[in-house]
């Protein structure tokens, strides 16, 4: 695959499209324009009116980064890209244009439970997993991810319907499509915060028990706790009589080997119980399992159930339509719950082929542990593992929040460490594919070195692109010099394809402009390749070039 071959890279683009790319990327490199982009768009709308504003947008930013207004309008672009070997991950990119105060109010209303309102400091909650007003606007410092704020259950139902339409559009547009969803669009985020805290506390309790058995220095999956010793410890700590503790580990396969590892331990948190019973945490001081919150209202219980039901409905639709579902990653205070819920979906729906894909953020210090633990679970239970690997979208916000509120920064120290983590996770998944052919991975990256690294590893392992186990992903309107040569060489490659009405995708476009500013300043490469191809065409007399497909 030659990423310098401009003729291959831009074969699908007419000259006007190349000129538009050059114009948009040039505009993205002008600081003042990017910083004031929202105000400038408003001014253009006022001066020229809605119709001309939409025309200007379609000739520039909207035309570059968005596929069309609805699922019918996007079909020609999807079919054209498909003809050049590039598939689509559909993403309906409409966003509310809230002020900061409105966003903060919505976040606080939806992340604080009834029990916390009545007695704010009564529960032993951790600062990281509580809502904080100064970080209530989750859009702050985030440029490449869409943000949903909870209003009510009806709004979540509407968002679920939007995702269902997106899944249907993916199924109708191609035989091998993907659709992207976000958990925070599907329910009240209070549940994600609380369930994340529960999962993290149980994991920490396991680490504490492993340390008691002198195993804290081992790799996470090598920490196998001796069952008898573990039962004695739990009895001594007052968590119950010996018989009660033995009942904890009396599941069908639990403890048969005489040891308990992290996956056995995780299975103690059973998703089939009453949901508020899920939110029980061990208290080391009292030796009791205690509810995370002093009380749950019936409404809170049903809100949590409805969130799980919506996720289940979407997965069923994906199966019916033959579409794969990508669950996007979000902030670290939501992510443990999002990952666990996605894992439960994988266990149920990935029995015969990979339908549900979880997203792993490789800028997190714990990324490798997360990938290895989830792959081991898929091995034991015999389902298809599906992963999308990204570097991550929330770095500045995560760092600021950790520093301000006072917990450990979850992000790798620098970009190089994140690169190493990405390649380490990727290599592990590729080895799993090589061993079992049951894992699948999307390398979602604009980094040419990462793509080359993947191709080299596939070559070494003899993994053929036609096996459809390793996919590549880039955003629409960016990095065509990576996507199209890969597609034409027979590799499964996909564009994240946003769509929606011009007015309602303005917040999305605003962020694309900001992301491209950093991207364009750091790399002149894409612009120089576009110029080179345009010059080549003009010099060879191709003043009017129309893609043939």
From TrEMBL:
Every copy of the Proline dehydrogenase domain together lies at: 78-518
**Protein's cellular compartments:** Mitochondrion matrix
Query: Which catalysed reactions does the entry list for this protein?
Result: L-proline + a quinone = (S)-1-pyrroline-5-carboxylate + a quinol + H(+)
EC class, as a word, reads oxidoreductase
Q: Does the keyword Mitochondrion apply?
A: yes
Record has tRNA processing as a keyword: no
Q: Where is this region: Disordered?
A: 100-127
Output the GO biological process annotations, alphabetical, semicolon-separated.
L-proline catabolic process to L-glutamate
Metabolic or biological pathway, per its Swiss-Prot or TrEMBL entry:
Amino-acid degradation; L-proline degradation into L-glutamate; L-glutamate from L-proline: step 1/2
Which protein family is it in?
Belongs to the proline oxidase family.
Q: What is this protein called?
A: Proline dehydrogenase
């Amino acid at each position: 695959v030659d990423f310098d071959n401009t003729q291959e890279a831009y074969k699908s683009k007419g000259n006007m499209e190349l000129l538009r790319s050059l114009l948009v990327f040039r505009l993205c490199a002008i600081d003042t324009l990017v910083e004031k982009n929202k105000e400038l768009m408003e001014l253009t709308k006022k001066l020229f009116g809605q119709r001309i504003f939409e025309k200007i947008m379609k000739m520039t930013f909207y035309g570059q980064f968005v596929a069309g207004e609805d699922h019918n309008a996007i079909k020609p672009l999807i079919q054209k890209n498909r003809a050049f070997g590039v598939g689509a991950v559909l993403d309906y990119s409409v966003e509310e244009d809230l002020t900061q105060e409105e966003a903060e109010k919505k976040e606080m209303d939806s992340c604080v439970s009834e029990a916390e309102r009545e007695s704010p400091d009564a529960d032993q909650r951790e600062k990281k997993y509580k809502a904080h007003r100064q970080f209530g606007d989750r859009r702050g410092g985030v440029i490449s991810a869409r943000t949903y704020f909870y209003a009510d259950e009806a709004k979540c139902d509407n968002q679920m319907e939007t995702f269902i339409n997106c899944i249907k559009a993916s199924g109708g547009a191609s035989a091998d499509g993907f659709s992207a969803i976000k958990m925070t669009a599907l329910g009240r985020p209070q549940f994600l915060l609380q369930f994340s805290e529960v999962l993290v506390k149980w994991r920490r309790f396991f680490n504490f028990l492993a340390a008691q058995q002198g195993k804290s220095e081992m790799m996470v999956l090598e920490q196998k706790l001796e069952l008898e010793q573990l039962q004695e410890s739990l009895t001594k700590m007052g968590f119950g009589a010996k018989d009660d503790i033995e009942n904890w580990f009396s599941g069908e396969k639990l403890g048969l080997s005489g040891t308990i590892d992290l996956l056995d331990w995780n299975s103690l948190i059973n998703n089939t119980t009453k949901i508020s019973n899920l939110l029980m945490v061990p208290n080391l001081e009292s030796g009791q399992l205690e509810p995370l919150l002093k009380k749950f209202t019936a409404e809170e219980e049903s809100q949590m159930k409805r969130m799980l039901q919506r996720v289940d409905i979407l997965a069923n639709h994906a199966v019916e339509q033959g579409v794969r579902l990508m669950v996007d990653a979000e902030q670290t205070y939501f992510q443990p719950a999002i990952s666990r819920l996605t894992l439960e979906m994988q266990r149920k729906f990935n029995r015969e082929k990979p339908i549900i894909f979880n997203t792993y953020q490789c800028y997190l210090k714990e990324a490798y542990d997360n990938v290895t633990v989830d792959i081991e679970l898929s091995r034991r239970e015999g389902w298809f593992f599906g992963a999308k690997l990204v570097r991550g979208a929330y770095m500045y916000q995560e760092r600021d929040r950790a520093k301000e509120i006072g917990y450990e920064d979850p992000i790798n120290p620098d970009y190089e460490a994140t690169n190493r983590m990405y390649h380490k996770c990727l290599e592990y998944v590729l080895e799993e594919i090589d061993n079992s052919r049951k894992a699948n991975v999307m390398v979602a990256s604009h980094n040419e070195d990462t793509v080359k690294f993947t191709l080299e590893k596939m070559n070494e392992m003899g993994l053929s692109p036609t096996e459809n186990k390793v996919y590549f992903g880039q955003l629409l309107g960016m990095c065509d010099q990576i996507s199209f040569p890969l597609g034409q060489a027979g590799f499964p490659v996909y564009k994240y394809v946003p769509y929606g009405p011009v007015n309602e995708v303005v917040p999305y476009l605003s962020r694309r402009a900001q992301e491209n500013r950093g991207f364009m300043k750091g790399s002149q490469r894409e612009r120089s390749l576009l110029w080179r191809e345009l010059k080549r065409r003009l010099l060879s007399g191709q003043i009017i070039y129309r893609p043939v497909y």
